[in-house]
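User: I'm putting together a small comparison set for a docking exercise, and I want a reference complex before I start. The sequence is below, and the ligand is glutathione. Could you produce the 3D structure with the ligand included, as structure tokens?
Assistant: Of course. I'll restate your input first, then give the structure tokens for the complex.
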Amino acid sequence: MSDLFPSRWPAKHPDRIQVYTFGTPNGRKLTVALEEMELPYEVHIIDILKGDQFDPEYLRINPNGKIPSIVDPNGPGGAPIAFMESAAILQYLGDKSGKLLPTEPAARWETIQWLTFQVAHIGPMLGQFGHFFKFAKGKTDSYGEERYGAEAKRLLGVLDKRLAGRDFLMGEQYTVADVATFPWIRGLQFYEAEAYLDYASFTNVEPWVQRCLARPKTAAGYEAASKQ
Ligand SMILES: N[C@@H](CCC(=O)N[C@@H](CS)C(=O)NCC(=O)O)C(=O)O
């Protein structure tokens, strides 16, 4: 068995990709991708509300103390590999499976561009917005909510424009860019922020979220990040 596996979360199926995650938007991406890619995997719940992400055993595979992470016992050259950062992992899994990441160079780079847009903008800005809008309510003045709310709306506008006339971010093809992004938009329900952000006015966005979730493997993967 690979000594990369954190011993606190033993693998029942050490031959499968081990996923360390939690039921948040970032946490759901990998299980959605793994279902769609039909790669065998095993989920370990890292309870970030209880501080599991700071366990030294977990920090060995994710020095940044965040979910998600993976250990693939059968990495490049057949050697085990552990790594963090969902965009890197999604590209790795795309290459490994030959699915959700176009191989034609122009389409591949455009997909990576939208994937990067998610990790650089959608995640950090909507995450900060959710913090100030839901969790810090009454603890600060309205500055944070207004600043990140304005940026969240601007980003929803960028997505809305991109999705006009397209089924998915890359058009007809469902890719890792969709997998990374739609859980964040779905997460606005959890923040109860739809009215504040005037979400309904971004008319191309919710139909796209529904198209993603209508895919049986995506729906299964979306739930899998909260089940051990
Ligand atoms: N850029 C990272 C972001 C990961 C991230 O922010 N994860 C959050 C959950 S959505 C986390 O682990 N938070 C725990 C903490 O901040 O202590 C990725 O895409 O993997």
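The CA atoms of residues 142 and 200 lie 23 Å apart. The chain has ten helices and four strands.
User: Thanks, that's exactly what I needed.
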